[in-house]
Amino acid sequence: MDALDEILDAQTxxxxxxxxxxxxxxxxxxxxxxxxxxxxxxxxxxDINHLADMHRKTQDGYRKKLILKYVFIELRxxxxxxxxLQGKVMKAEVFDPADRASRPYRGVTLVxxxxxxxxxxxxxxxxxxxxxxxxQVRNNIxxxxxxxxxxxxxRFWDEISMTTIQPLLDSIPSVFEYIK
Length: 180
Prior knowledge:
Layout: H1 2-10, H2 33-57, H3 61-90, H4 110-140, H5 150-159, H6 162-179
Helix pairs in contact: 2-3, 3-4, 4-5, 4-6
């Protein structure tokens, strides 16, 4: 038995696929759309956290605003993925745990479904007060730049602040931690 333990201990598990850090063919890849959306959400959130760390360490006002603009862009991507994931979670089959042995897969319990809905309600409320600003920044001075008058350009730059996005930043972690 000691030999088997040594063999098992010597094996290394490559971990979960990451598009930047871990592309090992032996890595775990998500097996369904919900898992893929969850992983994508996690990686976008990781990017946001790295940008936030850069923002904290930067002293120059223009650089801080420029980094924060990219947080807005990443948040827009996260909203799109998170909303699709929300649809999957809200439509997940609710099951009675007493019937678990007769089921080939696990759905969500009624208690889990209710709690997820409460958390998503907080997220949806936060999104309602931030999403328009995020979209306008992304579409007009972020990922897409068009022919915008300078008064609007200045207004969009003024929208770039932690105050604008803080409600969303506060609501996402609890939802993510619960549904994963």
